Each structure stands twice: as structure tokens, then as C-alpha cells.
Automatic annotation (TrEMBL):
Species whose genome carries this gene: Promicromonospora aerolata
Record has Iron-sulfur as a keyword: no
Descriptive protein name: glycerophosphodiester phosphodiesterase
Classification via PROSITE patterns: GP_PDE
Residue ranges with Low complexity bias: 67-77
């Protein structure tokens, strides 16, 4: 169970893109991407791309541009009620760089729906950010000018709000514009969502030709939707993203199509601007979660582009606000384009303290926790620009009760050497001290708090899908008890010799399980986690593996996965063996080789011995401070966990596993007064036979700490977890599980 940091060769995608930004469009798309190892690959040493905040500028959420009143039908929020005496700028959904310090910045349709945006004029604003770099700059976004999109030539053959006027100015009730690129001839191509359509405007905003219809369906707001026709594109899930490939445009459908079998599939299409038609080519992209959407696209080469993938959460609820690079010429084992993480917008270093203290996500780490992260482009060879649509007046990601400003941020991308501290920090069920356990939010938080591994406990659904839950009984970790349709599923079972009453994953299909939401398991201990109850789904193992393989540790290495097979003998007894589907999932995700960042663990012995013959990944024997492995008990084998950690027992473990994961007290017992005693011989004995030693579980609350590291008599008070971890590291520990990864990382720094 070797634990050195693993890396893979990576490149700064900005290099090719930056050159392309300074060249004519035809030359720009000729710069192709360099090939890199695929997901699951790893290399020792090497470098990674680190993201640092270089500048930030904002436009007040309450800024009003000249024009008629807007927002008469807008939903009120955060103390704001329309109509407003001018044109609201509700953030920017797309931008074009003018390479002179200014940008064309395009809002969407206004107030989020066709029915409430008839008084919102569709515009593209010329803006100049005065970047706050932490050393200079006001941090303001100046609005210099705008163009208004219009149909003054009468191209459209359906009714529009201003159809009876000469200018025929377009509004948010006519189109929901979300993306824009500027062609070599200066005309603008705009992707929108009501059709979804591709719209072609001249440089002054006049529509040049009829909208180009999407070939694979219509949305509910499409003006050509026929009576009885079933929309194939969900509302507000059209062309949120559009990449400029020169002759070819690449519109990206924001959400899944209704006829997709895979709910995580998002389609990238190719449109020929010379012929004015779709080419028939399309590529499949897989989101990290079913609910994630595509926010923007930016071409980095002939066949490569950046994509924003985001969720709809904001503030500290956010899970996914990411920029990936994809290469249309490279697909994974399932046929999806491979994606490479460029920036996690929830983890950007802010060493200059730009705007620190002004709201959530503004501190030593900069986060863009807005709901609608919808702008990304390169501004030079090392710098990304990211920005937001603020959905005025409803979003308040930074300061609760205050509408979000429009933000533009510069992110510096630089190569750094990968470092290795030699200690494996494992996010126990994710960062379960800060988010409900076994949710993608908990795993993402753990990654952002610098773990090397995330740990999913693996159980099975009725239809054989592996999901992440601490136990197969889910009454304490989901809201299943609040679902009357599942009341009859409550039952009593014998699991590993114990009678347990509740609801069990093996009695639910995955589709049924998806209707539930996670909740905090220890609300009395961690009341700070309860505001997140009811937000997050139960993730599949596949989703956890995808999150890991598409993530990087703080040191730049691939994030590892440390799955535990829960109750394998029981699941065998009900015909839902865990081993075969686990091995299949690892293989499907590229985690099926000896150097893969994976360790499979179990409290039982037999299933690890079986796995040893089924997979080349590392294995870890879990050891409790009392009792015996259930499969040994069931077979009348007299060995206990205490027997497993004798010198002889450890030598036996070394024949099928690579390490042990031991309860803390097995490694360093406690004295009668609860303080730490001298270390046992287990660490040294394990090392003597080539086993690595990890310990579980380090938690910050006093009740979980040795007495010499408690801060008070309050069992839920925060003690000195860092000190306790360091005591175990001094005894030779190789790694550890923790509910509080930030403190764990601090202990090894």
C-alpha cells in the first residue's frame, strides 16, 4: 500500500491558446493540443498547473444602464423589487476579448424566463475592467458602450415583442442568448436557448439571416414547436456554450436531451459557417453528476476547447464550478471525450489577499461560488478570465441577503513541481466534519482541503449499482423516513450477526434511491452540517471515481480513491456480490493497474483474498480494536483482529494485502486516564513484513480525542486534533483517515 504522491505529465493549455489569441482566426485553430496520458494514468515527479488569482473587478449588482425601465415582471429577491428605472445588467453569460483591455460582454435574456423578460433588451456591452491586482487598480468594471440586438431587416417570421416598431429591438421574451463568438469578418454568432438557435448578427447587432434550428429537437419555448410535439431539449438547456473553431462553430447543449439514455451526457455539435448548416458530427461529453450543466466554451486549438462544468448551487453549498479542457480527437473507454481539469474555481490561491474578507470565497483561497459560472476565455498565454451571470436580483452567493455583483477574475496558470510529503491523508467519507458524509459535496470539500484520497464506503442497490453509503441501512443518512411512498420498505434484517431495523439500499433501485437526499448522521455532534441536509443525492461509485480522476490534490497529483466494501458476506448472501462490480467500475474508469491511485479496504478477510486474484490495485486489511472479521466468525475461524496484528498475523496479511488500516487504539493504546500510552509494536511489525500502516479515524471533537488533546469537558468542543495526529506520525504512521482534512493537512505540513 505504497503512498507516494502520484502525478501525470500535464501541460498548460494556455500556451497554444495564447498564441492563437494573437493570430487571425484561421491560424488560431491550427494550433492543436498536445497529447497527455489519459484518466487514471500517473507518473512520479513532474509538474502540475497551479491557479492563482491575479486580478478581480466587479460591477455593482444594482448598476442600471441607460434605456427604458426593466424588470416589471421579475421575481423580487434580496430586498430588490422591479421595475427598475433603466436596463439591469444581470451579469455576463459570454465575452469576447478585444485585446486592448476591453471586452464585449453579453448578458442573457434578463430575468430567467420568457414570461418575465419582455422589457429586457438584448444587448452586448463594451466593458473595461480596472483590475484590482492587490497592488493597484480600483477593481471596478467600466461600462463604455453597447450594441442592441435587433431584427430591423425583418428576418424573423414569428411574432416578437417589438415587432411593430422600426428598430424591432429584441428582448428576453424573444430569445435567451447565452453564448457569443466573433467571426473573422467581425460578425457575431450567438447561441441561444429558446430554439435552441444559432443567430448571426452583424457587428452592430442586426440579425443577418433566419435562425439556424438545432437538428436534434426543440425546446418548450421554440416558436416553431408544433402542437403535440414533444420537446427534446429541456427549458433553458440550449446553447449555453459556443466555441469558435474558425470555419466551424461548436455549440454545446447545456443539459441532457430527453432521448438520451445517459443522463450525464452533454452533446457538442459542429456547425459549418460557410455552408450555413450542421455537419452531422457530434461528440459526447460526460458531466461529473447528472445535475451538472455546461456554462461556457472556448476553443484552444483545432480540436480542443475549454468547457465550464457547474452545478446550480451557490455559496458554501457549491460542489462543481470547474473548467475542463477536452480534445475532440480523444475519447475514453465509454466513448466520451476525455477531459482534463484546468481550474477548480472553488480552489484558487489568493496570496495577495485580493478583496479578502468581503464575502464568502474571498480570502486566502479565492472561490467563485456563484450559481451561474458562465464565462471563460484566455487573455494571454498564462491567464484565464472567468466570470458570472448573477441572475439579478436572486443570487446571493457572497453575502446572504445581498444580490451578487457581476465579477470578472483573472486566474494565473503556472507550472509547479509536484511535491510529496510521504504521508497519505484520507478524507474519511469525504470531509464529513464539514458536509454530510458520502456526498459529492463532502468529497469535493475534502479535495479542496488537500487530501490525497477520498474514501467511499460501497454498498449495492437492488439493481446491482454500487453507491456510497456508510451502511446499507440508510435511515440515519438520508431523508427516506420522510418519503411515505417508501414506508413499507422499513424492515428488520440481520447484518453480520446484528439485528437492524430501517431502510436498506438493497431494497431500492438506483432510480428510487436518487429521489432521496442525504442528511447529517451526527446532528448533535455537528449541527453546522445540518444546513446542508436535503441538498445532495446519494452518489454512485462511478460518480466518485469520476470526481477523483478529474481532480488533482493540492500538490498536483491525481486524487486517489480508497473504497471500502461494506458487509461483503451479507451482500453475497443476497445475490449482490460487491467484488465483481467494484472491479468492473475500477476498470471502466482506468483505475485497474498496480500504480493506480486506489486502495480497496475491507474488515473481512476472504473478500480481500478474492480481490487479490481479481485486480492489481492495492488492498488494505481493516483492523478493529475488538472483535473479529465477520467472515471468520461465520466460518468458526477463531482468529480475532488482535490475532491479525501479531507478527505472525501481519505476515499472513502481507500475502494478500499491501497494508493495514487500524483503529487508532491498536497502534497507540490509551492509559487508564484516557491519555496516549506508548505505541504498540504493530507499526514496526507491519513495516517489517512490507505493509504500510494507516490509522482511523481522527476527528476534532473532544469525545474522539485522547484526553491529553482535549480542550475541555465539552464532548463536542474542538480539541487539538493536529497534535494527536502528529503523535501518531512520530510513531511511524504512514497515513490516516480524518473527518477534518484541513486539520489533517496542517498536521503533516
Amino acid at each position: 500500500m505504497s503512498t507516494p504522491m502520484r502525478t501525470r505529465a500535464s501541460r498548460v493549455v494556455a500556451v497554444a491558446a495564447a498564441v492563437s489569441l494573437l493570430l487571425p482566426a484561421a491560424a488560431a485553430v491550427a494550433a492543436g493540443p498536445q497529447h497527455r496520458p489519459g484518466p487514471g494514468s500517473e507518473h512520479r515527479g513532474g509538474s502540475h498547473v497551479a491557479a492563482t488569482l491575479a486580478g478581480r473587478a466587479t460591477l455593482s449588482a444594482d448598476y442600471l444602464a441607460e434605456g427604458p425601465p426593466s424588470g416589471a415582471a421579475a421575481s423580487p429577491g434580496n430586498g430588490r423589487q422591479g421595475p427598475w428605472a433603466g436596463q439591469v445588467i444581470p451579469g455576463f453569460s459570454a465575452m469576447v476579448d478585444n485585446h486592448d483591455g476591453t471586452f464585449w460582454a453579453q448578458p442573457d435574456n434578463g430575468f430567467g424566463a420568457q414570461g418575465n423578460s419582455a422589457d429586457f433588451l438584448l444587448r452586448n456591452y463594451l466593458v473595461r475592467p480596472q483590475w484590482d491586482t492587490g497592488r493597484k487598480g480600483s477593481g471596478e468594471i467600466e461600462v463604455l458602450d453597447f450594441i442592441e440586438y435587433n431584427d430591423r431587416n425583418g428576418v424573423l417570421d414569428f411574432d416578437i415583442v417589438n415587432g411593430d416598431t422600426d428598430e424591432r429591438l429584441l428582448t428576453g421574451a424573444d430569445f435567451d442568448i447565452e453564448s457569443v463568438v466573433r467571426a473573422k469578418d467581425g460578425t457575431l454568432w450567438v447561441g441561444e436557448e429558446f430554439g435552441p438557435f444559432l443567430l448571426h448578427f452583424d457587428a452592430d447587432g442586426t440579425l443577418l439571416e433566419a435562425p439556424y434550428e438545432f437538428p436534434d429537437g426543440r425546446s418548450p419555448a421554440n416558436p416553431y414547436l408544433e402542437q403535440g410535439e414533444t420537446p427534446n431539449v429541456a427549458g433553458s438547456r440550449g446553447f449555453e456554450a459556443l466555441a469558435d473553431g474558425g470555419r466551424y462553430l461548436y455549440p454545446v447543449v447545456e443539459g441532457a436531451l430527453a432521448d438520451d439514455d445517459e443522463a450525464r451526457c452533454r452533446w457538442i455539435y459542429q456547425f459549418d459557417t460557410r455552408r450555413g448548416e450542421y455537419t452531422g458530427k457530434r461528440w459526447a461529453y460526460q458531466t461529473d453528476r447528472e445535475v451538472n450543466v455546461i456554462g461556457d466554451a472556448f476553443a484552444t486549438g483545432r480540436d480542443s476547447m475549454l468547457l465550464i462544468e457547474r452545478d446550480d448551487f451557490e455559496g458554501d453549498q457549491s460542489v462543481t464550478k470547474r473548467v475542463y479542457e477536452i480534445d475532440l480527437g480523444r475519447t475514453d473507454r465509454e466513448g466520451f471525450v476525455r477531459k482534463e481539469l484546468v481550474v477548480d474555481a472553488l480552489r484558487i490561491d489568493n496570496p495577495r489577499g485580493i478583496d479578502a474578507g468581503e464575502g464568502y470565497g474571498l480570502g486566502d483561497t479565492f472561490r467563485l461560488p456563484v450559481q451561474s459560472f458562465e464565462t471563460v476565455l484566455f487573455v494571454d498565454r498564462d491567464t484565464l478570465l472567468i466570470g458570472n451571470d448573477n441572475n439579478y436580483p436572486g443570487n446571493d452567493a457572497r453575502v446572504p441577503g445581498t444580490p451578487d455583483d457581476t465579477e470578472m477574475a483573472l486566474v494565473d496558470l503556472r507550472k509547479q513541481r509536484v511535491t510529496d510529503d510521504g504521508v497519505a491523508v484520507v478524507g474519511h467519507r469525504g470531509a464529513s466534519g464539514y458536509r454530510p458524509e458520502h456526498t459529492l459535496a463532502a468529497y469535493e470539500t475534502a479535495i479542496n482541503q488537500c487530501v490525497d484520497y477520498i474514501e467511499p464506503d460501497v454498498v449495492s442497490t437492488k439493481d446491482g449499482v454500487l453507491v456510497a453509503r456508510h451502511e446499507n441501512e440508510i435511515g440515519g443518512t438520508t431523508d427516506v423516513a420522510a418519503h411515505p411512498e417508501f414506508a413499507d420498505r422499513r424492515t428488520t434484517k440481520t447484518i453480520d450477526g446484528s439485528r437492524i431495523t430501517g431502510w436498506f439500499t438493497e431494497d431500492f433501485t438506483l432510480a428510487e434511491l436518487r429521489t432521496l437526499r442525504a442528511k447529517e448522521r451526527l446532528p448533535q455532534v455537528r449541527p453546522q452540517n445540518t444546513p446542508f441536509d436535503g441538498l445532495y443525492q446519494v452518489p454512485t461509485l462511478d460518480e466518485v471515481l469520476d470526481l477523483a480522476r478529474n481532480s488533482r490534490t493540492c500538490a498536483g497529483a491525481p486524487v486517489g480513491v480508497y473504497p471500502e466494501t461494506k458487509h461483503p458476506s451479507y451482500f453475497d448472501s443476497v445475490g449482490l456480490s460487491l467484488e465483481e462490480p467494484l472491479v468492473a467500475e475500477l476498470r471502466r474508469n482506468g483505475f485497474d493497474h498496480p500504480k493506480a491511485p486506489v486502495i480497496v479496504q475491507s474488515f473481512e478477510v476472504g473478500n480481500l483474498q478474492d480481490l487479490d486474484s481479481m485486480t492489481d490495485v492495492r488492498l488494505g486489511q481493516l483492523v478493529s480494536g475488538s472483535g473479529a472479521p465477520y467472515d471468520l466468525e461465520a466460518a468458526d475461524d477463531p482468529r480475532t483482529y488482535a490475532d491479525l496484528v501479531t507478527a505472525e498475523g501481519l505476515a499472513e496479511i502481507a500475502t494478500y494485502a499491501d497494508g493495514i488500516g487500524a483503529e487508532k487504539n491498536v497502534l497507540i493504546p490509551r492509559n487508564a486516564d484516557g491519555t496516549l500510552a506508548a505505541p504498540s509494536s504493530v507499526i514496526d511489525d507491519a513495516h517489517a513484513v512490507g505493509l504500510e500502516v494507516h490509522a482511523w479515524t481522527f476527528r476534532r471533537e473532544n469525545q474522539f480525542l485522547a484526553a491529553d488533546f482535549r480542550s475541555s469537558n465539552d464532548p463536542n468542543g474542538v480539541g487539538d486534533m493536529v497534535g494527536e495526529v502528529q503523535a501518531f506520525l512520530d510513531a511511524g504512521l504512514d497515513g490516516f483517515f480524518t473527518d477534518n482534512p484541513d486539520l489533517g493537512a496542517a498536521a503533516v505540513s
